[in-house]
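Researcher: Can you fold this with calcium ion in place?
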Amino acid sequence: MKTILLIEIVAMLFLSCCKKDETVHADSIMAGQVSGNGILYTNVVPDDTISGFSDTEDKTLDLNQDGIDDILLRSGHITAAGFGNGGSWAIPLGENEIARPFEPGSMVDTLSYGETIDKNLVWGKGTSELYYYYYDQFWTNYGESGLWRYGKLNYIGIRIYKDDKILYGWIRVEISVVGSQKLMEYAVTTG
Ligand SMILES: [Ca+2]
């Protein structure tokens, strides 16, 4: 009888241990992943267009819904006598970081659907360029830079420092019009 009780206790401990393991904090997310343990997904409906003319528009996002903004998206177009410029940027806030194609640099990488977002990507801080363009009068000088102008189904990677935890997330935006970006959906691991 005692042996059976002991086996039951051990079995219960084993089950409770494994149950706990199922909710262990995820240390990665895949670009476009919308479900899974500890993953918080937000579908932006309708898509949110961030844009500006003669100004820029800012939108902050709190990906993990803890009351602390994690990233700022900025788009707009500036004109003045003889020139114009504009574009779209993403600015990780605080100690947070954004996935880059390389460092040092200020560009935002275009992650593909299913790509693993974890410590192995290249991460950087500060104002980061999705797309930038400029021109002067009569278009004698003009140019553009950034990886996002014609990107479809690409994802921004973000790393969030939350207390003693590191969270990974993705944000899907599209740039089909210069000086504008369309926010569609995002997801993040939670602490
Ligand atoms: Ca947050």
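Model: Folded with calcium ion in place. The pocket of calcium ion is lined by residues 62-64, 66, 68, 70 (CB under 6 Å).
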